[in-house]
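Weekly modeling sync, notes
Attendees: S.R. (lead), two postdocs, one rotation student

Agenda item 3: backlog of single-chain predictions. S.R. asked that every request posted to the team notebook include the full sequence so nobody has to chase files. The rotation student volunteered to paste the first one in as an example of the format we agreed on. Action items at the bottom.

Example entry:
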Amino acid sequence: MSKRVIGLLLVFFLIASCNGKVPGADARKIPPNAKDRIRQNIEQGKGFTLMGSNKKNIGDFDFASSNELWRASLDTLDFMPLALANYSGGIIVTDWYSDGSSDDESVKISVRFLTNEIRADALAVKVFYKKCSMQNNCKVSDRSSDLANELTKKILTKAAFYEKENKIKKKNPKYKNEALRTDQ
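Predicted structure, as returned to the notebook:
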């Protein structure tokens, strides 16, 4: 019996606390267009973040065109057809490539991004060779030592150059206009 009385009192207090107005329920104050609602909410400071998602983590990547490592990797591997270029996943994989000198040998390269920072351990480059015999028996081997080190060095050099160029552009807005004039 006491549980029923407590339950009824709880329901009574909940109903009594409602004044009939639900916050934000006035349709005259809410714009019908979604973009206008978003702009209004941002202006009012409404919104939320999950576990501090506005902080920059090491695993987060910038937009592709502003990431010097990504651009340098694509520029370095531009002679090879790409099988996969997943910016959000941080990986580039080329298709099997042969320069035409040997029909039975081809190479495949994968570049995995470990960080956005331009440093020696920012990339994991793997080079795979495929050698096929006349009976289409193919043997794939991982030979990542020399060529992978050379590719990593070339990508990091280009990325450092791109980063330096971006810093100059940010400091001097006229640099962009001058660069455009010299290209024409």
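Discussion: group reviewed the output briefly. Helices lie at 2-17, 34-43, 68-76, 146-171, 174-183.
Action items: rotation student to repeat for the remaining queue; S.R. to check formatting next week.
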